[in-house]
């Protein structure tokens, strides 16, 4: 992948970026400037690298424009050659820190408390919003940015990211977690020619035959002759397809599924939204 970073960064900046990458991929790296200098065998003092990080001036958006252009070229060409669909994958993650700034000896800028879905609680650190493009076995980064509270919401940023995607010539899908399934995100994908697939919480409201009910409650009325047994790799699942209104969405397809030996077990129920 040729991006020609020399057009965007000076030689010292490129050298420091390479030193950072080299150090970060070495055993023993623990997120310190000292590690970067020692593990990359940089020919400079740690204060030089620290000054580069804290006071260096460069426009990272120029680099991202070059990266995104090349990622689009690779993924879209691969899709045309292989006749495989394109997937746009959205996610967020937290780079958790061990101590809040009030307790740390040297506080880290722009950190805050964020809800960790993995741990089910608030944790201290930076939250990142990411967007990856994939085709076949190839997955490449398209957007990585730090989410800032008080600014635009994650939903707004996802919609803006999608609006910048090229219109696909073949099948293309967005993949996301349950907290991104809403009308704005769905419409943003539809306008650019992408279908949307995402997890759905079992407490979402659906309207079978016009009756308002949560998915998990509706699932208890589904009988064995209304589901199909589907095999995925070596696992088997009972699957039910609902098509109709979803709270805030006029027409949706929701797939309810249970492991083969856990049919109608509320704790084993998983839902997938398809559009």
From TrEMBL:
Q: Which InterPro entries match?
A: RNaseH-like_sf (IPR012337)
Q: Would you tell me the protein name for this molecule?
A: Transposase IS4 family protein
